[in-house]
Batch of 2 targets.
Target 1
Amino acid sequence: MPPVYVLAYGPLSARPWQLSDSANSQTGIASCGMRRNEDAWVNKIAVIGATGMLGLPVTAKLLKAGFEVTALVRDQERARRILPEQTKVVQADIRDIASLKYGLKGQDAVYLNLSVAPTARKSDFHAEGEGVKNIIEAAHFNGLKRTGYLSAIIRDSTENDWWILDVWRNAIGQIKGSGIPYTIFYPTNFMETIAQRHVVGGFVALVGKARFANYWIAGDDYGAQVARSFQSESSANREYVIQGPEAMTYDEATVRFAKSSKDRMRVVKVPLGLLRCLGVVSRTADFHAHMMGTVLRYPEIFRAAETWAELGKPSMTIEEFTVGHQQRLSH
């Protein structure tokens, strides 16, 4: 089976990702046949952020597509516990250019799954700031053929002047101006966000009130699209809007998730204003207040027709996602 290098830069999940077929993998893009890559133009991919919420499904789908995946991580022992066993693990840090050059040696491409820490200050080192600069330098040193980058559909929001939006835009500018062929993904809300960010015990916290609907997508479907992009040279220097098959407001998606959970979780509404007040004394609360405010006010429209035509159409419903997610937790 051909190689994918993964630099885990972000919180490590405590739950292993199952690569084997499950209820989730029988739906959506994952059900379409993916060819092996013996003769492909890209065989080895470095994925930076493999152990994150969205790095895990992308890594699993890259492996399933026939790529060789290696994780470049700061903590090898912890990464080996949660990544698919087919994943190679190498130690590296995006603050350390020498380790990046070593980790990217012999690779064909790099996929970036980065994030800004909720406690971060504007003046701090940022993975999507100085980190991207270091990655680009290491990629040039090793002659990589492609950079893939997970951004966000809300990166062009005009609702506020939140500095993190500028960090995202700067990362896009660096990648597009690097001279290395790129593929950039602009996703809507992920179903994983509800399962991993809003569940507290037997409750699901619903923050604020959505003005617009979003085309929610599951990480499995997105991961399959990423894998397809690396299978095609025609996706170079392209930007793809990532959206799922059905429009739902944040409220609707949260309620459907709760109702389809095996224990029928209770939805608890939290005023956005309360989170903003807490943000006066807590950087984490301030981060989440800004994030939710931006997401809830973003006037999303459907723009993924071209993405579906080229990378496959997602089909996983929120109910199918919930069942699959809870099956993973029970293993």
Target 2
Amino acid sequence: MAGATIGVHVDGVSKRFAHRVKGEIYAARDVRIDVRPGEFLTLLGPSGCGKTTTLRMIAGFEKPDAGRIRFGGQDVTDLPANQRNIGFVFQNYALFPHLSVFENVAYGLQRARPAERGASRAASRDVLQLVGLAGYEHQFSGQLSGGEQQRVALARAIVIRPRVLLFDEPLSNLDAKLRVQMRTEIRDLQRRLAITTVYVTHDQEEAMAVSDRIAVMNQGSVVQEGTAEDLYHRPASRIRRDVRRPRQSRSRPRRRNRRRHRQASRRSGTVLRARAARPGLAAGDAVRARAAPGSDRDRPRRRREHADGDRRVAHVSGREGRVSLHCGDARRCRPFATTRGPARSRRTVHVDVACGSRRTP
């Protein structure tokens, strides 16, 4: 639907604003991001870290003070938003209250291609069917639930066959249960359409659930990139650990080499033994140690999964996760845990895809 899939390259962009109290501040500073064709990349970070400013520069709503932005091989830095062929899903949905669901979805397509009115109507119906809103054409936004309004906003974004799909915290106005449902639907739809997607959120669980890769931002810069598993188990900075979950650390232990592990002595005299998170540590280096659920003794030796059907892991977060099981036309979601029972038991979880059951020996 989106045509040829392209990548997005953000090369050293910066954006400054004049603040009445603080003076000139950087909302984004030398941001460098490469989004691969068809990839789902999430910008994750606390409020004020620059993630929305970066997204708005990709969309064309803000012009960077420095750096370049490219869609595929095309430089779009100076191109206005309406000429970039992007789909944008806003945090507040931005639906027209005086237009019906069908008119909201068809609006952008009719503005972009006024000569193809008949084709626009057919395309709008097809997209409403795709997002599960067939039969809602004559409803108005005030008559819809939050999740239904979100689907209308998503349909309006994808009906124009965008080259790039952008999301600005689209689930923040929904309740917890509906957020889980909608993030799964967004991820499934993005995979089906194979649209290059950039997604902004401050919720680390949400980021882990939907993303191929995550770029963590702080104070206007990208501090780490990687998959959800990489960022969870190998955080590169204290900021990364704070985004992931409340900090569980001990201040300034000292480590020395010991085969594949490091031995760290806290000032209290307690000795900790753990795998080194990065190479190059020498005796006497001051580092921080962390204790994460699902790591060290909590981590099992192995986990087997019987793949009699199509198994897709939707997201993994520490010692818990959720697996989607596709068996023919049936689709089941089952949570799984990397450990069961006491931390020392090292029991293995088996997921039997054929019947969608979970068992531990």
